[in-house]
Amino acid sequence: MSKYVRQEKSQRKHPVASSASSLIKAPAVPEAPRERPGFKGPGFLKKTVKQARQPQQSKASRIDPAYQVQLIPNADQQLLLNILRTTFPVCLDYETLKPILQGIRVALSEGNSEKAFSRLDWMQAYAVRWSSTRALCCATILLSIADELSEETHIHDFLTGTCADDSLWRIVCFGGGPTEVLAFAAALRHNQPLGNEQLPDKMPLATEDPSVASVSPSPTVNLYLVDKADWAPVVSSLELGLVTPPVLSKYASQSAHNNNLPFLHSSTLRTAFIRKDILTASQEELISIIGPAPSLITFFFTLHNLYNTSSARAAALILKTTLLAPKDSLLLIVDLAEPASETAVRTDGAGVEKGGFRMGTWLDMVLSGQLGPEDVAQKSPWKELIKDEYRVFKLAEGLKFPVSLDHVTFQVYLFKKG
């Protein structure tokens, strides 16, 4: 059995591959390829690594919006909202108001303004929900114009109601309604604070002695509202609320009763409503509306709707206004800001499809005569004073109102006729 005993210096019959002294090496493990096999011959171009596409942002989202500076005190804004609340109590019953607002939204989205403004309760609901914030926005715009363009004497006097004589300021509002009444009332209260302190029963009596100066109310602003919907009842109710002192509690002090003044003096603002589809108005009708003296002509959240209805007739309206407006007249356009991608195809009055334009571009083309008849002069008589296609009006904090109030994103244009 000794012959099977392994000696000290004996060798294994099959060497171990992992042994350091072995003559047989372990097979090399192939390395993983660094890239996929492919063509490497002449003309080979290495492909560039594709970067992940970033979501494309719209032009409106890339532009930092300009925020409209608040110029109206919070107390005056709250007073204006209180007038709306007391004038139209429908805002206090949300369950009744909710289906009305939904019906208005559906009608306006379908372009059926006749249905949206065919009932008095619907018009009151519209004034409560949308005219409230838009009026505060437009009033702030009016005050900022008077502040930014103070070097323009005519503009400053026109918007502040200060003039050398006792002439009446004329303001023509195409598509006018509750928004315009509340906006100009707020602007006049801010610019003419003394007018609110002169109540009819507290004004001094006229005397025969010419040396005694009598206090007269501030100059009157005549507001002409033109719209095809019958806003006269709503406007009359608001006008009454503006010149009526608020109702005080029976426990109010004598001092509170003595200082209880209306929002405006009764002679500060006068309104006249003209029911007319402005797109079908003749030149003679526009002459009687605009008048022979310099006037302020406004389109508050109206021109874009007219453009969607018929761009051809809307352009004709702007051209007629250009022709008939006296020298030194002002043209103020405020409308909702448009999405950057809005280039929808629209139809003119004859049903012919037309390529859509952004309202600012379309307005420039109309005023320069590019969209009018061939005999219209190319040089526009309007001098552009303000142009901003994207501005935001943020509501002041702390305002109380039974209906939710939203911020307003708008575009504004101001022209002066030379």
Explain what this protein looks like in three dimensions.
InterPro entries: Methyltransf_34. The structure is a single chain. With 418 residues, the chain is of the alpha/beta class. It has helices at residues 59-62, 74-87, 94-109, 113-116, 120-148, 153-160, 178-191, 232-242, 254-258, 283-290, 303-309, 311-324, 359-367, and strands at residues 66-67, 169-174, 221-227, 269-275, 296-300, 330-336, 346-347, 353-354, 382-393, 408-417. It has a single domain (61-160, 167-196, 217-248, 260-417), classed as Vaccinia Virus protein VP39 (Rossmann fold, 3-Layer(aba) Sandwich). 34% of the residues lie in helices and 14% in strands. Strands 1-9-10-6-5-2-3-4 form an 8-stranded mixed β-sheet. Strands 7-8 form a two-stranded antiparallel ribbon. The longest helix is centred in the N-terminal third of the chain and has 29 residues, at 120-148. The termini are far apart.
Characteristics:
13 helices, 8-stranded mixed sheet, Methyltransf_34, Rossmann fold, single chain, alpha/beta, 34% helix
SSE inventory with pairings:
Layout: H1 59-62, E1 66-67, H2 74-87, H3 94-109, H4 113-116, H5 120-148, H6 153-160, E2 169-174, H7 178-191, E3 221-227, H8 232-242, H9 254-258, E4 269-275, H10 283-290, E5 296-300, H11 303-309, H12 311-324, E6 330-336, E7 346-347, E8 353-354, H13 359-367, E9 382-393, E10 408-417
Parallel strand pairs: 1-9, 2-3, 2-5, 3-4, 5-6
Antiparallel strand pairs: 6-10, 7-8, 9-10
Biased composition (Basic and acidic residues): 1-10
Region (Disordered): 1-44
Pfam family, one: Methyltransf_34
